[in-house]
Each structure stands twice: as C-alpha cells, then as structure tokens.
Amino acid sequence: MANLFNKGKERRRTASAIKEINKDVQEVANRRGRYTVDNIVPKPTAGTTIDPRLRALYTEATQLVGIYGKRDQELLKLLSLGDKDPSNKRPKVVSVVGFGGLGKTTLVRAVYDKIKGGFDSRGFVPVGQNPDMKKIFRDILIGLDKNMYTNMNLMVLDERQLIEEIREFLHDKRYLVVIDDIWDGKLWEDIKLAFSNMNNLGSRLITTTRILSVSIACCPSTHDSIYQMGPLSDSDSTRLFCKRIFSSENKCPSELKEVSRDILKKCGGVPLAILTIASLLIVGHQIKPKVEWQVLLDSIGRGLTEDASMEEM
Fold it and tell me: Cα-flanking dihedrals φ and ψ of residue 126, to 5°?
C-alpha cells in the first residue's frame, strides 16, 4: 500500500512539473530556427516566490558553463579587456539578451568570476520585474565594498545621494558591475546615472535582459556591444542532458537514445527546459525505466497540443 502511495505521489510531482514547463517548451519549439527576442512581452508576476525550476539551473551551473565554452569566449571578446586600443579605456557596456531559460545569468556569472580579479571594484546586482530603485543602488554599493557599506546606514539616503555616493566611490577605480535581469529601458536610464562616462580606466558594465529593446537602450554608443543568446545546438543539448542523467555524454544506453532525442526536440535547446526534464527522469542516482521516459515524452506532447500559449520561463 505504501509503495502505491509513493508511486502516486511521484506521478503527481511529475505531472505538476510537466504542466509548469509545457507552455515554455511550446514557445521554444516555435522559435527554434527563427530566434528573435524583440517581440517578447514581459508579464508581471503577482508573487515574489522563487520559481522552483530555477533550482535545476543553479544546481547544474557548472555543467552548463562547460557546455557554453565558446559562448564565454565570445562574451570575453566583446568586453575587449586585452585590447590596447586607447578607446577601450572608456567605460563600456555589453548587454546579453535572450528569452527566458537560456542561462544568461549563468553565462555572465561565469565570465564575471573569471575576470573580476582584474578590477579594483566589482558587483553583481539582480534587478527583476518589480525593482526598488533605492535598493538597486544600495546593492551596488554593498557589492562594490561590502565591509564599508554594510556598516553604513544607507537607508537614510535618497536616490540622488545614493547616485552621488556611487559616482564618488568609483571615480578613480576600474570597476566591473553586472546589472542582471532588466525588464525596462527607462530603469536602465536611471541606473546608468550612477556611472560616469569620464572614468577612463577600462571599466565594464554588463547587463542581461529578455527584451531586445531594453538591450538596445543599454548600448546607445557604437563603443557598446549586444550579445544575443540563442538555444543550444543539438549536440550541446545532448551533452547537457546526458551529463545530467548519466554523468557522461557517452553513457546513454542504446535503448534510451531514441526517446532521448525525441525529448530533446521538445526542449528546443533551452538549458532550463533540458535540466528540468532531465531531473524528472532520475530518482537520486537511479535512472527511471524506459516506459516512464515514454510516459514523460507523451505527456509533454499532450500539453503542447492542448495549450500553445506562452508564459515566460
């Protein structure tokens, strides 16, 4: 009886997870091969809880960065860190844009961690859909110098004072600041007031967004750069999927190869979808039997047929 209860509980968990990602995967499938990001309409969320699907992406961040390989090199090239051209001493903005679930934050975090040692001050600041402007400025200051600003009562400062504090702190420093997940171009216009164009020390700003118009707003100068992220290739999708389930891209049993390919087609190259689906196919270190893989595949198919609308990942 207990065994039947556990199986029922597991099936409900699987069904719930499938329901959550069906809409996302449909959009990915539609966009495959015709990737554009400027027509995505952001939908405000009512709650502030963390999406449980993000756990898959954070848990497997190391594997995902390994898959990216070429992408972090492309982003590093756009940052022009080793270029001796005098113009690259000016502050530069690089904006990473792509629809939800592609791993923009994971990629930027990996590059940030790789290069942050070359800067006097650095900070990584998330924004999101419901930003508090003063909190963003406070987070920038704490990121730049945690010891100094954690002990300072920043709550008493208004926006103008916070902007002045950031500008004064950075005026003689080479800095690296990431502003992650911007949804509004007007918001960026306010944030950038804290960063002077007169700092000619090779400072860099990186932004991430799902919306192309926001990315363009972040990069008004020909000196700035936009990096558009697309889905993973078929081969990289397979590598990520197999590493998550089998710990190696070369260990997929022959009897699971065909159903694996069919599942990955549904995922459309989106890392978050791949990792979330993969997490449903294992329990601990135990791989589920083929029949359950097929049930999962069929369930995704039914969801895509029944509901073709999009919800941002």
Answer: -80, 145
End-to-end CA distance of the chain: 37
pLDDT at 156 over 90: yes
Q: Which residues of 161-173 are buried (b: 16+ CB within 10 A; e: fewer)?
A: ebbebbeebbeee
Residue corresponding to tokens 């051209």: 85
**Average pLDDT for 92-102:** 94
pLDDT value of position 226? 98
CA distances from 93 to 81, 192, 246 (A): 12, 10, 39
pLDDT of res. 81? 83
- Domains along the chain with CATH numbers: 13-34+232-306 (no CATH), 69-228 (3.40.50.300)
User: Tell me, what's the pLDDT at 300?
Assistant: 80
Please give the pLDDT value at position 83. Answer: 65
Q: Which has more pLDDT, 6 or 109?
A: 109
Q: Cα–Cα distance between 45 and 84 in angstroms, integer?
A: 45
The reported pLDDT for the residue numbered 1 is: 54
Q: Of 291, 295, 260, which Cα lies nearest the Cα of 278?
A: 260
